[in-house]
Write a structure and sequence with these properties.
- The chain has one domain: TIM Barrel.
- The chain has an 8-stranded parallel β-sheet.
- It is of the alpha/beta class and 290 residues long.
- The chain is built from 13 helices and 8 strands.
Length: 290
């Protein structure tokens, strides 16, 4: 199955919480509207950025419902990955209304490559919808090697792309040279990876500045790398600031400063430090300048 839909700039959406700790679905819908209006190509709720490990099944279903209601035809990919086949398939069935599934490399178990291969093959065989692999060793403790990714691409028709957040450019280049669709999982790597042939990014920064991120990626899709590089220089301080503490801590602080959601997280995540707040104020001020 070819990766036809999931190209360009997608947003790994934050999940807004209200002061009482519940999900603020109204704010979430407004944030999705803002993404659509800014020209974002696809939406990714219920990833790690959305604090999904801290959401109930009922909340996940409602987040997907709201995302689809506000997506205006944009594809909606949902994160369903856990560290067991049974847990991942339970999420897949729970969220079957999604257009595609983002499945992270199993965390904590530290499986060998043949176990990673078997896991993804078992999951993808249970759906006809597209599956996107997600490699983020910094969070999972496991890396999916290029050879394993390419074997899955060759053997499993509905595995259509990989979100790569390893920061391992040699590995990413091997995947691209193997002819498989790759999406950057790190905002700061997007330019280099797209120059090398990546199809786009699943972005955290586009929560904060969707119009600028969409333009940044679309310039590269159009081959205007000089203009993209100029815009990338302006965005780089934001890319860095959003990860001075674990994602989505700085991002939610930035969104609160923009009046888009409360600066609320669920434990074990906590609000940003005062130093991070000061940094974000400066970065947002600089971005707002013409």
């Amino acid at each position: 199955m070819e990766n036809r839909w999931f190209k360009g700039c997608g947003t790994a959406l934050f999940t807004p919480f209200s002061q009482d700790g519940g999900i603020d679905y109204e704010a979430f819908g407004a944030c999705v509207d803002r993404q659509v209006e800014a020209g974002i190509d696809f939406l990714v709720p219920l990833g790690t950025t959305g604090e999904t490990p801290c959401l109930s099944d009922a909340e996940k279903v409602e987040v997907l419902r709201v995302a689809r209601a506000h997506a205006a035809g944009r594809p909606v990919i949902v994160g369903v990955g856990t560290n067991s086949v049974g847990g991942t398939l339970a999420n897949l069935r729970l969220l079957e209304e999604a257009d595609a599934f983002l499945v992270v490399v199993p965390y904590y178990n530290k499986p060998p490559q043949r176990g990673i291969y078997g896991y993804f093959k078992a999951v993808a065989s249970e759906t006809d919808k597209p599956v996107i692999l997600y490699n983020v060793p910094g969070r999972t403790g496991s890396n999916i090697e290029a050879a394993t990714t390419l074997a899955l691409a060759a053997d499993v028709p509905n595995i259509v792309a990989i979100k790569e957040a390893s920061g391992n450019f040699a590995q990413c280049e091997a995947i691209l040279q193997g002819g498989f669709s790759l999406l950057s999982g790190n905002d700061g790597d997007t330019q280099d990876l797209m120059i090398a042939g990546a199809d786009g990014v699943i972005s955290v920064a586009s929560n904060v500045c969707p119009r600028e991120m969409a333009r940044f990626v679309h310039l590269m899709q159009d081959g205007d790398f000089p203009a993209a590089a100029e815009l990338g220089k302006r965005l780089q301080p934001l890319f860095e600031a959003l990860f001075v503490e674990p994602n989505p801590i700085p991002g939610k602080a930035a969104m609160a400063r923009l009046g888009l959601m409360e600066n609320k997280l669920r434990l074990p995540l906590v609000p940003a430090t005062a130093d991070t707040e000061i940094l974000l104020d400066d970065v947002l001020h600089q971005l707002a300048r013409p």
